[in-house]
Amino acid sequence: MCSSIRGAAAAVAFLMASAVSSAAVGAASVQQSKLSNDSPFLAAVDTGPPRQIVTVVYETGCKVLPKEHVAAASLLEYLVLEGPLGKTNAEYRRELFLLNASISMSVAGRGVLLVVTAPPSTLKAALQISSELVQKPKLVEDQLKVAQQRSISRRRAQQQDMRFLTDLAAQRHLYPGHPDAYSCISKVSDIQGLGLDALKSDWAALTQPSRRAFGTVGPMPIAAVRTLIESTLLKDSKVRYEASVAVAPATFRKPTSPGGTDVVLLEQPDAQDNQVVYIWPHTLQPDTADYATAEIAFTLLGGGFSGRLQQELREKRGLTYGAFADIYDTLPQYIGASFAGGEKVARLMQELPQVYADFVAEQQTDERIGIAKEALVTGFRESTELPLDSFLLALNARFFGRDPNAWRGQVERWTAVTKSGLEQFIKARMNSKPSYLVVAGDSKVLLPLLEQAGYAKESIKTLAADEL
Amino acid sequence: MLRFLLKALLVALLAMCASAHAAVTAKQKIELRGGAKVYEYVLPNQLTLIVIEKPDAPLTSIYHWVKAGSLSETPGITGIAHLFEHMMFRPLAPEEPSFDDKVSKFGANINANTRFESTVYTTTIPTRHLATVLQAEAARFKGLKVTDELLNIEREAVRSEYQTGLDSNPILDFWYSTYIKGFPGHPLGWQIVGLREDLDKIKAADCNVFFTKHYRPNNTGLIIGGAVSAPEVLRLVEANYGNWELGPKLAIPSSFIGKGAVLAEGKLASPARSTIFGFRVPLYSELDPQAVQLANWILFQSSYSLARRRLSIDQTLAVGVNDFNFDYDNAMLKGTANLLPNVTLPKLQMELAQLGSDFARLSNEEYDAYLKQLFISAQDDGLRNEGLVAFAAQSWGKFGGLQYMQNMLAGKAAANLRSRTKAIVDQYIQADNLVLVHGKGDK
Questions:
Q1: B74 and chain A: CB distance < 8 Å anywhere?
Q2: Is A319 helix (H, G, I), strand (E, B) or coil?
């Protein structure tokens, strides 16, 4: 969708992931101000890259659409990026190419993100084209058929990735109805069910001019970009900005199984590999001391090569190629994931509870805690090297309703975590029994194994990938 | 006494002379846009050291580019190079900590990848730990001893890797098949991970022979970049790697000679009708580096690539039209796409066969725009310290020197670039040189 520049692609991927892993932000200055219509404006100067990025976030998203219109997201992404009315797709693409510019758009649960990237010399022209795209999208019948084909094809391609499917299953099943669980990924049947009239009204709802927040990062002076935005994107509509209604926090669906663990089995007939994902809910707020403690705990459990899961499951037991743990904030959950093929999956399922139980029971050492902290800080430095990183992370925080500046104490928060605090956290909040177990693979293999591992038949919900 | 003093004086003088002869000076120094400086040294044991001084880098990255990939293997033990990607992180002796244990306490981010022509080891660390980490790095590159126990653990990890990747993901399955079907009888045809039937045949002794032969300073590039000082890094590298013994001079196989269109079915079905298609070319090291990169850019990699234009923009035949794995692979310019329901494989073959003609029709305006886009993309890649180190490593290891990086980051086209790119396209982007792999059962 937006392959021509890493920064813009990262922005899209970053903002539109429904479950965004906690990340820290660098030290570059990100200015917050307002444009002439009161729209928020985040801006940073980054003299390194040769191109300027301008972002427009429409604070709308699937949450403003009727529930059965979720597929509008993926259809509109195709339709709108085919070029504005009056231009063929080929003409539009060629024009952008010769400007050395790119325009991408993604629709997520709580917003639409438009990213325009261009060298300073052609930025104005690229912004004008993006304005045309929004105001005059090519919502016509023959294009809709093509968009449906393309959306279905994309969905089929996504379904080829088992990790993608387990994440999607977790989002959809654990947070039913929450906007952040509904990004531009939709069922094939939903994609086929939407007509042109519905899409036109959906597009109007998604691109309300009063819901726009702007941003920019790149080599140009901030004032110059502000002027360009005012004279292009705001030129035709200076409607006042109205703050978006906050999205209610996502609520984790409580398991109903008497055993305490609900199981979701994603049917992948004849799969040679299996995914086994443990999931627990949490209610921690990002950028807090508790969250920092959780990040260290989950780094110890499953961060990189030295994490406990990797050491136990791969290094000592040879059961898996990879195993990791992570903590997510937007759809709050902790996960521990591992993969195993063939006969190893039986052992993996049997032995996993003990691996988790041992981790919870044992005392943490200062050395291990120190290693986890160093790993987090190294990752922090690596991911916040450029002003672009600071900008994207500030934009992300704002997108999810958080303080764009809350990142500034990240390293200090990790440093302040104590051994006793960490142990208390692990004992109180981590458990060898997950609230949900999401597995993907061949049900002929997995169902008997799940029952052997003590999961009652009635606690297992089997889903086909098409049902997500 | 006098004789003793004279002898001592002579020894001292000789030592000074030896030291003067051994002093390593930079073979070249390059100043990059943004203030980074690149120094290239060659140590007496022929280890190439490239140091990138980047004063604003938050961390230091260390790349070891060992010119020992799957092309260095011999029939029967294919996949052995890839096993080293795993084994190099293991303890050097039973009682020793692993490399990971030695460096993770510094927050190191470590990884490795195997390619056709090389295996690349990457470590990123806080700069203050460089001296200690280089000791651990040098120890593993000089002293790995593979035992049956070590090999068996990693053999299982590789088996699991097959299941997670090649047995489960259609795209990886097709990638594997592309080389197997496209390069019959040539080492490129046993793919980077090797033939599965060979995995159990590899013995610890084979690994030690392979290591002793290939993991040598004259076969390795060490690239270090960060807020470091080149002379200080040189001193550390001399101290830790100076006694690494020179190995035999090695050569990789010559390029595949052969043609004939290949239409092959992967092992897995693809509900998305994914395909991988490519045109065989010589090993990149035998081609003009910038020209082969530009050819791939225009054909497959650009957001407005000729393949995307033909399959997705000018017509509606496919979605997800992209380049596939150019940076890691070799000897093939290739792309991937998901075909729409009514598009047949012969139709796709026919369209792809036209890409050479599309290239020939490029206007000067279009050609210039592609070139500019490519240079901007390269500059984006070099913004981060780790990206810059990776760029230097790739330039040295895959494209034969730092000139490629220097030109790409400076936005400088080599002389006659367009005609040299056209020559590659004219010769290799032909219908009878196309390799196309699709999903099982796809028609």
A1: no
A2: coil
